Amino acid sequence: MIPRDLPPTTGPCPLCAAVITSPAEDLPAPHPSPAPAFPIYPEASPANIQQPTAADDIETNRTRTQRSAILDDGPRRSILPAVVILIALAAVLTGVIWFAVNESKKKAKIAPPNPSNTALPVNEAHYLRIGWQTDAYRALKGFIAATTVKDKLPFILNASNLAPKIEEAYGGSYISDSDTPAEAFTVYELSESDTKRGLFVMIYDQPARLEMKEFFRPLASLEVQYGLQEADLLLSTVANVGNFSTEPLRVLAFFKRTPEGLKLDWEIFTQTKYRTLRNFAELPEVGNTKIFRVLISEDVPEQGRAVPGTRAYRVVDPANTSDGARVNVQVDSDTGRALAPINWRGTKENQPVTQSATVELSWSGTATTPTLNLTRLVCWEFMGLGGQESPTPPAPK
C-alpha cells in the first residue's frame, strides 16, 4: 500500500524500469481491496502507468542531473578533510626540511677548529693532548728538509734575533740534517702546566750501533780476558769495541706555540745534536764564553779539591746526561745567591734538587791550568721557552 501523504516521487519502475511518478496528494485514495497473493505496486499497475511527456522528460533530465550532482559531491565532500590533513602534513614536513637544511648550512659555515683559539675548551684540550703533534711534525720536517739558513729560518723560534748566530754556526755551507729524520722523532710528554704554556717536546733517541761487517775483532787470550795480563797496544786498539761503534745520539726538539704556529727551538736542537756542551767542557779555551741550557744541581766537591767559601754544582746536558761538568761557585757572589734555592748540603734537604736552567759558562786561568766557571745564571728554565732573562739580584746588605 502507498501511504496517502507520500509526496510525488519520480523514479524507475521496479517491474518494467520505466520512469514513473507517484500521484499527487489531491488524488482520491483508492478503495481498499483484498490483499493479493503477492504485493502490487501502484507504479506497476496499468492504471498508474503513464506515457512520458516532454515535461516529464525535462523533469527526468533535471532529476538525473541533480542525482548525478549529489553522487559527484558525495565523494568530494568525504575526501575534503583528508586533503586538508595532507596539506597540513606537507606544510609541517616542508618546515622541518627547511629547518634541517638551514641548520646544516650554519654548521658548514662554522670555521674549522683553530688550535690557537683558547676560547674553545674542548678543541683546546684535544690540541694540547695530541693535536699539536701534527703541527710539530710538519715544522720539524720543513726544518730538516731545508739545506740553507734562509730556508730554515721560517721554522725557528725567535729567528729574527738568532739569524746572525745561525749563519755563524753553519758558516754558509750546505746543511744536511738527514741523519736525524723527522719520522724517527717520538713524542715526549711534558707536564700539563707546560703544555698549557704552549711547550711541547719530541725526542730522537738512537743507541750506539755496531757494524760487524766493517771490522774484524780478534779474540784476546784468557790471561788478558781475566786480567792476568795487560793487552798490548795493538790488541787494545783493534779489539776495543768502542773504536768500531757509533756513539749514541739523543736530540731534543722543543717547540713553542706562537701566533704563527709551532716553532722549533734551534739552540736546544743544535746543542743536543752536536753535543756542544761536551765539546766546550772537554776542550778548554781560556776566555771562551757560551750560554747553555742545562740541568743543574748541587754536587759534592771533588775529593781533595774543595775550595773554601764555594759550593760545587754539576751542569749536564738535558738530552745526554753523560755530558756535564762540575763547577765551583762563590757562595757570596750574585750567581751563588741565585743558585741558593737548590742547595741541599748542610740544609734540611736530604737529596739533590735538579732544576732546568740557562747558564753562562766560561774558561779562565792559563792554558796550562784552565778553570771552568759558572759566571752567570741567565734564568731558571730554558731561555726563550719557559724562562726569560732577568737582571741579577742585588747582593744582600
What's this entry about, in short?
The protein has 397 residues and is α+β, with helices and mostly antiparallel strands.
Write up this protein:
- It is a single chain.
- Among the domains are: 125-268, Nuclear Transport Factor 2, Chain: A; 275-380, OB fold (Dihydrolipoamide Acetyltransferase, E2P) (Beta Barrel).
- The chain is built from 10 helices and 11 strands.
- It has helices at residues 54-109, 121-145, 149-152, 159-170, 192-196, 222-225, 233-239, 266-274, 276-282, 334-338, and strands spanning 10-12, 19-21, 186-188, 199-206, 249-258, 261-264, 289-299, 310-316, 324-330, 355-365, 370-380.
- It is elongated and about 155 Å long.
- The relative contact order is 0.07.
| Order of H and E elements | EEHHHHEHEHHEEHHEEEHEE
CATH topology of one domain: Nuclear Transport Factor 2, Chain: A
Task: Please describe the biggest sheet, giving its number of strands, its sense, and whether it closes into a barrel.
Answer: 5 strands, antiparallel
Q: What gross morphology would you assign?
A: elongated
Strand residue content: 15-25%
Percent of residues in helices comes to 25-40%
* Rg calculated over all Cα atoms: 52 Å
Distance between the termini: 141 Å
Which structural category fits the helices and strands? alpha+beta
| Strand order in space, largest sheet | 9-8-7-10-11
Instruction: Using the 3D structure, state the CATH architecture of one domain.
Output: Roll
The total strand number stands at: 11
- Mean pLDDT over the full residue set: 78
* Low-pLDDT residue spans: 33-49, 108-120
- The CATH class of one domain is identified as Alpha Beta
Number of helices: 10
